[in-house]
Structure prediction request, 94 residues.
Amino acid sequence: MTEIEIKEIEDRYKLASPGPWKSLIEGRDVESGDSFIMTGIAEGEDIWSEKRDEDIYLIGATTADQDFIAHARQDIPKLLSEIKRLKSNDTSAI
Prediction:
């Protein structure tokens, strides 16, 4: 993976709604109507906090798709950090 590709991925995640994101599935996590991704609220924080950003609603997504998308907001920064760490230790390793 090139430095340009890493920078492009980093730029995209930084422009996304603030994290963390949490997948809430109707019938599994909530009983209020729709499945959605809640953004900007950490575990244990008040869901009505002013820090909360707009919810994300997906049409046609499976539960696995929605969970993957929601987790990507937290996973991508971690993966990029690990890639950078590995590259700084040994540029031939990647």
Notes: The radius of gyration is 16 Å. Residues 63-89 form the longest helix (27 residues).
